[in-house]
Amino acid sequence: MSRARADEEEYWHSSKFRAFTFDDEDDELSQLKESKRAVNSLRDIVDDDDDDLERVSWSGEPVGSISWSIKETASSSTSSLEGHDSSLQKGSSSYAAFPKQASSYSLSSLFKGRNKLPSFQSLSDALSDTGVKNYAPELRRPRAEYKDYSSDWSPKDTVIRMQRGKVCSLERFRSLQDKLVLLDEAVAGHDGNVITAVLIFLKRTLRREILFRELEVRQVALCHLIHFLKETGEQKFLLDLLRFLDRTEEVALSQYREHLNIQDVEKRREFLKGCIGLPFSAEDTSHIQDHYTLLERQIIIEANDRHLETAGQSEIFRKYPRKASILNMPLVTTLFYSCFYHYTEAEGMFSSPTNLKKTFKIPDKQYVLTALAARAKLRAWDDVDALFTTKNWLGYTKKKAPIGFHRVVEILQRNNAPVQVLQEYVRLVEDVETRLNLATKYKCHDVVIETYRDLKDRVQLTAYKCKVERGSAEEEKINSILNN
Amino acid sequence: QLPGKKDLFIEADLMSPLDRIANVSILKQHEVDKLYKVESRPALSASDQFCFLVRPRIRTMRYIADIINADKMSGRSRKYKIIFSPQKVVIVTSVPNLDVTCDEWSFYLLPLDEDIISMELPEFFRDYFLEGDHRWINSVARALQLLSSLYGPFGKAYGIGRCAKMSYELWRDLEEESEGEGQGRKPEIGNIFLMDRDTDYVTALCSQVVYEGLVDDTFRIKCGSVDFGPDVTSSDKSIKVLLNAQDKVSPHVPWGNQVPQWHQEEAEQRRRGMDIKQMKNFVSQELKGLKQEHRLLSLHIGACESIMKKKTKQDFQEMMKAEHLLLEGFDIRESTSFIEEHIDRQVSPIESLRLMCLLSITENGLNPKDYRSLKTQYLQSYGPEHLLTFHNLKRIGLLTEQAAGDTLTAVESKVSRLVTDRAAGKITDAFNSLARKSNFRAISKKLGLIPRVDGEYDLKMPRDMAYVFSGAYVPLSCKIIEQVLERRGWLGLEEVVRLLNGNEFAVSDSTVEDNPAWDSQRIILAVFLGGCTFSEIAALRFLGKERGFKFIFLTTAITNSSRMMEAMIEAKA
């Protein structure tokens, strides 16, 4: 008898699985709330006249600051259209912010407490000092400067002069040899501006093939030219260079990149079609193909749905008007859209989810996640249920998911699923600790109680009693378990 | 410099820096009539003179050219002046010759805090590390020249990375030319340490958990100030707050027990006794300060609440777990499937990219199967045009695919995890000689970047720089600096240097008198080429406190993982 009791004690007392309750976090937040309250109550002590503080506009910029003033210019220039509006905003929302602390601009505080040298100059002084200008002379100097220039500087001197921002004519470097020495000196000088300047000169004065050939063995200079061409948008020259260098993949990518600048969807689609044949890697070719197919589908779906929506016959569109067009959206977004508006369509339809899944070989996991999110958003719990129900050959049904059930719960919860729906999936979470966490968090009392029962954790179960409503079915359930 | 009334056009990203040193009334003194933002909107103005304050960018030049040409078409004649900041670069001259005068606003250094100077050149990262363009090296050299003209020569220079080396050399060239000026001056900054961002991508890719880092990741700090939106201010407006060491309430020096300065002053005043005038002064000055602090405090509390809300929503815990697993190199499968799910659920595209890059760098590239499947899913979730992003990430080395032979590294890391003695080291070395890679795992082991923690890491009593990542990881960049300063050179770090792909240097300036007793020996200018994060700043501040150093930061820009990832995305022209 006594032994049995001891066993029972042991049986009940092992309170290993203490559910992590989010109360902890709540505590921290409430602590913050405490401090907030304390700080706010201080407001009464600190006298509240704000006159001496800077005024700021509705956007939070101090009135008189540059960014504020620019917005003002912008809004006043459109004031004929919406002047009423902007004056309203302005009037209602000036308030105080903190004056800037001018002392922060000085580095002198760095040396606070150390022996401050008399010669020490603070950075802010230095910056306002016009003498600093000497470090950054203009690249383009007044005409008079041209006089001090000599025609027999060595390439090195030329580069050094250019680095210091002085004007130099490069025209006198005539032979290929001279030009290349100049380029090499520029590269050795580490100043990208000079390198680019020399390259612009070479680009203008050398035959393409020669320039390309020489750059092939000068990687740093080559990078500069490629970057220059990209920035200035000399696409044709760039492609020629890349082709010469046999960088076929870059040729392809660089052409593909242009689609970003095409606004019109029809033109974009045509352009992408042309990209399919470009020399991409095998893997990327299929991505490009998918990109084209996706846009093609989107154009069809968009045309149909816009029609449906304006006709006003379809209930789903009436109930949930579209917020944006589906054009140029990612595949997963498109799938979500189609699960939302076209869930039940037959596979033959371009807009049906199953069609998308097949065409783009969307993995099961991705499909289920997206379909779940879409159907949950519509609160179509039956569809959710069907998504996870599988039948084996004996006709038994079973719930299965390619993603963890804790994720399913999370998504459902975010869409405000009722507890009855939620708890069905919480129950399926395999990891006991996670299950307890989720069940406690989302108040799925039955699941908590059952889990503790299965764990034979009497202590926790007793403790949980105070979390359920008095006299509720849950409390009864706990009592009956405890009494058994 | 352009006399008479004029309209000023300012580029958006120059507004915040200008705001910090000037305001509208100063501009008005310079006869600026109206202010416009440079954007693709035709300007309607009656002014006879236009002044443009811009970054040297092709896009902006085209915008200006459009305005000028439109004026020409309509027969208007105006004077135009373009001011480039920080300097004019050659590329802008490629836009067809315009009849304008040009100038430069040599704005190289923006002090963000008492120990942080930013060059505000966020494009440095992409231009140098992705495109291989050296155009900003000159700017870095000039910034160094400016600093050394203010604070005397740097006694000792250390550095790692190709760009560090080039910047240092170009700066030396500039110095040599102006030799004589700084001769014989006593150095006020004894040491300088230059580092390329690509020496350590891992640290920059980690989620930040120090306060400023969190604020930067969540709200984006611009030029040292942050816009707190309505959810923080608990009103319908947003407020701009300057974050720096003067602000005594933000918890960015969590362990310090400094008495706020005004307390000291206040105490002093009390001791001396105050007359009426002083009293009045005290009330108007000090109480104003109090009030401001009170308001700031409530803002920071609001910010904390908002961060906490966001973090709990994004299952931050899970993400941190995955990140720590990646750093430690355990259970890569689990982290990979976490990332996969992240992508499938269309959680932020930038976060997904960041996690993939972290996986790639810590594992020396993804195995081909994972690479393909993650890439495909990414393109499906966030858009096929990210094909270009992947290409960029591959070029810069942030997200790579292991070549067929490299799969050995997977075996290697497993082996070295199993065997913990010296044999493992040998195996690692043997495998590493096969390819030049990020080698994070090996470096991490050599430098002990993953602290062995017995029990909880007490964040209130930080033991090492790992505290900036809740005790899970010592930032590599900072560890390198620590090691080199400790050894006064690279001696004994040969293996690490080899794994970091070399390009290290340590130079003593023989013309500078070297007196170890000088305070300047304890001061280090840490130069980050390509950006540094608030976490790194916090870590080095901590190191400075521990070892009696004082770090000053010079960075091309403050960066974080999102900015780095965004720099890799192709935008339309």
UniProtKB/TrEMBL annotation, chain A:
<dbReference type="GO" id="GO:0007034">
    <property type="term" value="P:vacuolar transport"/>
</dbReference>
<dbReference type="InterPro" id="IPR038132">
    <property type="entry name" value="Vps16_C_sf"/>
</dbReference>
<keyword id="KW-0968">Cytoplasmic vesicle</keyword>
<keyword id="KW-0967">Endosome</keyword>
<dbReference type="GO" id="GO:0006886">
    <property type="term" value="P:intracellular protein transport"/>
</dbReference>
<protein>
    <recommendedName>
        <fullName>Spermatogenesis-defective protein 39 homolog</fullName>
    </recommendedName>
</protein>
<dbReference type="GO" id="GO:0005770">
    <property type="term" value="C:late endosome"/>
</dbReference>
<dbReference type="GO" id="GO:0005769">
    <property type="term" value="C:early endosome"/>
</dbReference>
<dbReference type="InterPro" id="IPR040057">
    <property type="entry name" value="Spe-39"/>
</dbReference>
From TrEMBL, chain B:
<dbReference type="InterPro" id="IPR001619">
    <property type="entry name" value="Sec1-like"/>
</dbReference>
<comment type="similarity">
    <text>Belongs to the STXBP/unc-18/SEC1 family.</text>
</comment>
<dbReference type="InterPro" id="IPR043155">
    <property type="entry name" value="VPS33_dom3b"/>
</dbReference>
<dbReference type="GO" id="GO:0005765">
    <property type="term" value="C:lysosomal membrane"/>
</dbReference>
<dbReference type="InterPro" id="IPR027482">
    <property type="entry name" value="Sec1-like_dom2"/>
</dbReference>
<dbReference type="InterPro" id="IPR036045">
    <property type="entry name" value="Sec1-like_sf"/>
</dbReference>
<keyword id="KW-0813">Transport</keyword>
<dbReference type="GO" id="GO:0031902">
    <property type="term" value="C:late endosome membrane"/>
</dbReference>
<keyword id="KW-0653">Protein transport</keyword>
<dbReference type="GO" id="GO:0016192">
    <property type="term" value="P:vesicle-mediated transport"/>
</dbReference>
<dbReference type="InterPro" id="IPR043154">
    <property type="entry name" value="Sec-1-like_dom1"/>
</dbReference>
<dbReference type="Pfam" id="PF00995">
    <property type="entry name" value="Sec1"/>
</dbReference>
<protein>
    <submittedName>
        <fullName>Vacuolar protein sorting-associated protein 33B</fullName>
    </submittedName>
</protein>
<dbReference type="GO" id="GO:0015031">
    <property type="term" value="P:protein transport"/>
</dbReference>
<dbReference type="InterPro" id="IPR043127">
    <property type="entry name" value="Sec-1-like_dom3a"/>
</dbReference>
